[in-house]
Design brief:
The complex is a heterodimer of chains A (102) and B (372). Chain A has 102 residues and is mainly beta. Helices cover 6% and strands 48% of the residues of chain A. Chain A has one helix at residues 3-8; strands spanning 14-17, 38-41, 46-55, 58-65, 69-75, 84-93, 96-101. In chain A, the strands form two sheets. In chain A, strands 3-4-5-7-6 form a five-stranded mixed beta barrel. A two-stranded antiparallel sheet of chain A has the order 1-2. Chain A is globular and about 45 Å long. With 372 residues, chain B is α/β, with parallel strands linked by helices. Chain B is built from twelve helices and eleven strands. In chain B, strands 3-2-4-7-1-8-11-10-9 form a nine-stranded mixed β-sheet, sandwiched between helices. Chain B starts with 6 loop residues before the first strand and ends with a strand. The chains are: A mainly beta (102), B alpha/beta (372).
Chain lengths: 102, 372
């Protein structure tokens, strides 16, 4: 299963290289460090808010997972830098990945 | 490095930036025509290469422009690197000449107001926040927090650059604004207002580079490209090491100055890639023009003393941002400054100038040093 098919099912996975065990981001089937094959780790990952802003009362933030992966996500409550969050909703809409954290 | 041929700028052509709905092929021809009209000493039969800088999806644009302009070059192709396509093309042309593959090259950059280069579809890490206003908002928030800077302090960038653009007949804007105007302009996000943004537009700019021998034959006022630095950190915005400084700019600037044998203190005039207000102080700091967190103080002082040292043509904010033409228009401005041919925008007797042109939230930067 690819990262995108999992994302379409609402599951956020972390791509990790079979060979060197490094996290590969953005998701790819081939590792950018050693060109090894990549598998997907499933889990209830905890991320940290790095930065945020808002548009018309809709907050958006940069969240970092495993000190490596960063995504831009929606958040409903006022974000705090350094606060731990989890992905509450994700998918693909109109070709764009969408992420919401809580 | 010393074995390479010297490369100079021998002519340029530029047309006003507008919101015109025209075909890319006609837009390209506009500035090429201007260039040849104003430089009748340049023989089109002696042009070895035609390089095109654009994000437009039309194909085979270099052979198309060559045919429309009556040129049969040896080398003909397009260079695309989002917003710094223009300086990337200049670097490619420099390399062809320095290596001896070509003696004289036409570089033409052009874009339509609806360029597909405004959104990097590949960058899915940005989720649904792919429009440039979102990375700019993150930069602004991060910069303001890190250095305790206010929205008012950032807005002076827009006030200054619109004021300077008023002296540029090719600029999209010919209005001046106050800090209050910028602060009261439409709020796009919590950290960005409309007048903090450069605007996409239709525009074209052309330049001719030549070997030392040819340059000396063709012009009494050649301007030499003496420093080149480029660095790409990533393609994706979220891979930026910091959101309050520009790592690719810092590295590209260092490389360019080292090649030119200059310090930043030796640079008398500079074009800075102010895609949004916050980019100007960030770039000034990353290039070493000011200390970290002090970029807005430098901008304020330049504005209050009416010093046009930074972004004399009005920057991207005042002039408009036709992506593929921007880096070439910036280079033309520094050429005009060094030739004392910049009209009301002229800075005092500059000897060396710098161009900073970047792509996709400073994930990639090009810096050029020009000298008389």
């Amino acid at each position: 299963m690819s990262f995108e098919s999992k994302l379409t099912e609402g599951k956020f996975c972390i791509p990790e290289c079979d060979e060197c065990k490094k996290i590969v981001w953005p998701p790819s089937e081939i590792c950018s460090y050693c060109f090894g094959n990549v598998h997907l780790k499933e889990g209830d990952f905890v991320g940290k808010i790095i930065e945020f802003s808002s548009q018309k009362d809709q907050f958006f933030c940069i969240v970092e997972f495993e000190n490596t992966i960063r995504i831009m996500a929606k958040i409903s409550e006022t974000p705090e830098i350094g606060k731990n969050v989890k992905i509450s909703k994700c998918g693909i809409n109109d070709g764009n990945y969408v992420f919401q954290v809580i | 490095m010393n074995d390479m041929n010297k490369v100079g700028i021998v002519g340029y052509g530029i047309t006003p930036f507008t919101k015109d709905d025209k075909k890319i092929e006609s837009i390209l021809l506009d500035s090429a025509k201007e260039l040849f009209k104003n430089n009748s000493q340049i023989n089109r039969d002696e042009i070895d290469a035609v390089l095109i800088s654009t994000n437009n999806n039309s194909k085979y644009l270099s052979p198309v422009l060559s045919e429309m302009a009556g040129i049969q070059p040896k080398i003909a192709h397009t260079i695309e690197s989002l917003c710094n396509s223009g300086t990337n093309s200049i670097v490619s042309a420099y390399s062809y000449i320095a290596s001896g593959l070509a003696d004289m090259i036409l570089i033409t950059g052009a874009e339509r107001y609806d360029s597909p280069g405004q959104i990097l579809e590949w960058d899915n890490s940005r989720g649904e926040f792919k429009h440039p206003i979102f990375w700019a908002s993150i930069f602004a928030k991060s910069y303001k927090r890190e250095f305790s800077i206010s929205d008012e302090q950032l807005s002076i960038v827009s006030v200054k650059n619109h004021k300077q653009a008023k002296e540029n007949p090719n600029a999209l804007s010919n209005k001046t604004y106050t800090i209050e105007d910028v602060m009261n302009s439409k709020k796009l996000t919590d950290d960005l207002r409309l007048l903090d943004c450069s605007r996409p537009c239709t525009g074209s700019a052309s330049i001719i580079l030549a070997s030392e021998q040819k340059a000396k034959q063709l012009t009494d006022q050649p301007v030499w490209i003496t420093g080149i630095g480029q660095k790409t950190i990533s393609a994706g915005f979220t891979k930026n090491i910091s959101f309050s400084s520009m790592e690719s700019t810092r590295l590209a600037g260092k490389t360019a100055l080292k090649m030119a044998g200059k310090n930043i203190e030796n640079i008398d005039v500079a074009e800075i890639h102010d895609a949004f207000s916050v980019c100007e102080p960030m770039a000034l700091e990353s290039l070493g023009f000011s200390n970290d967190g002090k970029g807005t103080s430098m901008v304020k002082e330049l504005h209050e003393t009416n010093n046009f040292k930074i972004n004399p043509r009005g920057g991207l904010i005042g002039t408009g941002h036709p992506l593929g033409a921007t880096g070439i228009a910036q280079t033309i401005e520094i050429t005009q400054q060094l030739q004392s041919n910049a009209g009301n925008r002229q800075t005092e007797n500059p000897q060396a100038g710098l161009i900073h042109n970047m792509s996709a939230a400073a994930t990639s930067s090009t810096v050029l040093v020009l000298e008389k």
